Amino acid sequence: MKKNVVLLCFMMVALAVSYAFGQRETPAGAGDKNLAEGDGIKMRSVEMERMKQEARRTEAAAFAPINKDISARFPQIKEDFEGIQISEAAIITAFTTGKTIDYSLIASSADEINKKAKRLDSNLFAVSAEKKAGHTSDEGGKEKIEKPKSVRDLIIELDKAIGSFVSSKIFGNIKVIDFEVAINTRTDLLNILKLSEKLSLEAKDLK
């Protein structure tokens, strides 16, 4: 009797194990299907990335087209590149040192930055900054209304924009320029133009 009970229990365990493995067994062709689905997702991801990159190239061609004779303009580019940093240092010194703030120096230095930034833009890119700046708008097609900023805030923002601009890889190898680098550099340069103009106006009001 005991032997029969043990044998019955053994058979029940064997059936349970067999059933469990059967449940986990992959149906014929299921592995190939999962593999095909994985390849399809990967291909779609690659295609989406390719389309994104192509869109950025198109944007760069329209927003930041590089001058064809940029190499010949390098001496002037170098002069203005260094000049805007010198003028920015003068602004910071005028604002942070001395018993009173020299707003006249801040205004004249901001004007100098604006002038050099415009010439940098014309030497680096094939489309004028004025045309590009005119396209700045919000999603509704209306110009953004910005709150007036203090001289201090404008100096901080201008310093940040100049720092980003001068660290651009465009100046590392001017003959080989990535489209992403061109877009970012043009964006920084337009910000410098806008901020230096605003800073000059604010400083002149406080002279």
**Poorly predicted spans:** 2-10, 13-24, 134-142
Coarse morphology: elongated
Q: Into which percentage range does the β-strand content fall?
A: under 5%
As a percent range, the share of helical residues equals over 70%
How many extended strands?
Answer: 0
Order of helices and strands: HHHHHHH
Mean pLDDT rating: 79
Radius of gyration: 32 Å
Per DSSP, the total helix count is: 7
Structural class: mainly alpha
| Assembly context of the chains | single chain
Notes on the structure:
This protein is mostly helical. It has a domain at 64-205. It is built from seven helices and no strands. Mean pLDDT is 79; it is low at 2-10, 13-24 and 134-142.
